[in-house]
Amino acid sequence: MCLCCSVCGTWAGVARCRVRVLEERVGPRDRSSPGRGRPLQFRHECELTAEAYVIRQAWREASPPDCLVGLDSGCGQWQHGTYRRKKPVGMRISRWYCRDCGVSFSALPDCLCARLPGSLSQAEEVVLLAESHGISAAAREFRPDALDFRGARRWVRRRVFPVRAGLSVFRGLDPVLFAGLALLLGAFRERLAAPVALVALRGLGCGRLACLPYPVGFDLRRRRSGSQTGPPTEDDPMRRGAFRRG
Question: What is the DSSP string of the chain?
Fold first, then answer.
């Protein structure tokens, strides 16, 4: 049975008319950046560690907000199953699909990194060791079985530089709380007095997570530019050699 559009009377017009109706309700899509302005993830606020989250199967307790795209009431959200994460073993993320908005979105718990495998506490350990002993030392500690040491160093940098970019953003968002702090995760952790600074930062930026860089925020556009934060300044720890090259 062929599916024809009730508006234009053609099969090919179904998708076009659906997009037109969506654009009338939420505005035209920015084709230069697919998905821009439409958050595909939201925060599942919880105090569980990643291991406890798996044991408790806490993804069953997540519930979506009213509407992530900003439509009026009546937005149709349907449970869209779960998807699996490789680390930690057994981790699953709840997912929903909005038939009115035409997008799917998921609930990321506070314990997990966005856009990176593993938990925020594990990423924090990597960054703290890189700050104190250098990227090479962190690579030897956390990737001892890597076949290529250069690949292990890249693995560390994929965590160090995005976290550093996020610290720069948070320091600008709250210049009073983070006044005088260098772009070092250890300094932020001491100022926040939190067991896991990255989890505490996600709580502080809960209203702006769609615009904050990963692994704390959910902004996918900063995935490629996370390591490029502009020319070094006088208080830049990279300029002073805070991250030793090993």
Answer: -----TTTSSSTHHHHHHHHHHHHHH----TTSTTTT--SEEEE-----HHHHHHHTGGGG----S-SS---TT--EEEEEEEE-SSSTT-EEEEEEETTTTEEEEEEETTBPSSSSSBHHHHHHHHHHHHHH-HHHHHHHH-TT-S-HHHHHHHHHHHHHHHHHHHHHHHHH-TTTTTT--S-HHHHHHHHT-SSHHHHHHHHTTTSGGGSBTTTS-BGGGTTTTT---S--TT-TTTTTSS---
